[in-house]
Amino acid sequence: MGRSTTGGERRVKLDQQNSHKQDSHNKMKESVNKQSKKKQMKRPALLLGCFAVLGAMSFPAGNTQAAAEGKKVIGYYMDASDDYYKAGFQVFKALATKSGWEVLDVVGQGTAPEQVSAVENFITQKVDALVVVQNSPQTTSECLKKASAAGIPEFHLTHNPPNEPGLAGFAGFDWVYDGELAAQSAVKHNVTKLIMIEGKLGQGTAAGQTQGFLQGYKKEGKDIGNLLDSVGVKGAGGKDLQVVFWGSGGWFADPAKKVMQDAITSLGQDGFDGAYVQNDEMMTGALSAMQEAGLDPSKYWLGSSNGKEKSWDWVAKGLTTMDVNQCPTLEADICFQQITAKFAGKPYKKAVFVNFMPYEKDTVDKSKMIPWLLDDYMAKRAANAFKYDINDPVFRANPAYQ
User: Which of 50, 135, 140, 83 is nearest to 328 (CA)?
Assistant: First the structure.
């Protein structure tokens, strides 16, 4: 989906979706190049081989029959073939299967009509609930009206949906605070000339992380000039922080690699001292670009988010500086719990900020990390190695949806 990179438009998106917060990775050099070709994200290009990459889909009659016979059927839509979305889906399906539910999945190719068509088909099949990882809030608004008219509850993951009738639940991260955590690290490491590689614009998450990073500097009392009003303007900022290069990697490794290559060509090795690369797949591409240019990534502040397993090693070895263990697996688990409560007629938190944890070399502890890999996640969950109960206080209510 095309998206302008002007600061005004991004700010509007952010204000619509994150306003209440303002008041809210497996080897070293040689493996990074392999990873950039093999994996892509978000939050983070693994193909979802088990999914149908379709914009519209007619489901077999058996699925309708399953609903009629009393088995709960969930229609699950993802905007793109993205390993962030895949990781969450796998956990959701595993939990749903244990509960005797059936999950129908459709994966789009990043366009709005695919989301609408998928939701329409799910409604035709009379699913019991919808789970959507949206293309955009505008597209979701249309889908919510359709689902509401059909009496089907619609739940959302990851990207902030509009708070409109038909929205039965949302589980996502506090993207603004995610960005603030990166800023706290960058300030500690005296970063003043930053490359900003954002995710896919228009979904709300990338704008939230950018906003959080910039205001994080401001909260630390740093002079950032007019950066908050000059998003996307190269060289904008103050004496304590300038964003010397902006670019969007769309959550994937290859586009982010191109952005970093362009930045290095434009700035030279001394033209920046840090880079905020908003997810781990884009960081894979950025690391590849730096290494191909003969730069030592450990000499720069490099911050990211997602907290994938490979990033645990990056940070532990000093290849990157910091990351945030912000997992789609836990996010999807919370969504499953919301739907479970909905089916049982029990009260539940409608919108939840899913818990996450930042880490640097001196704080990374793999035993405390929440996995992205399905088997590891389910094993740690069963051992109560991390908090996953939606009723735990660590899962804060998102004030934008109350």
Answer: 83
Nearest-CA neighbor of 131 among 356, 382, 331?
A: 331
Q: What does the angle CA 231 – CA 236 – CA 237 come to, to the nearest 5 degrees?
A: 105
The residue written with tokens 């499953």 in the block is 336
Whether residue 320 sits in one domain with residue 190:
yes
Q: Whole-angstrom Cα distance, residue 385 to residue 383?
A: 5
Closest by Cα among 307, 309, 257 to 285:
257
Residue 173, Cα to own-chain centre: how many angstroms? 8
Q: Does residue 201 sit within a domain?
A: yes
Q: Are residues 165 and 238 in the same domain?
A: no
User: Does residue 236 contact residue 7 with C-beta atoms inside 8 Å?
Assistant: no
State the pLDDT at residue 203: 73
As for how many domains the chain has, the answer is 2
Structural domain includes residue 23: no
51, part of any domain:
no
Residue 33, in any domain of the structure:
no
- pLDDT-derived band of residue 224, with 50, 70 and 90 as boundaries? very high
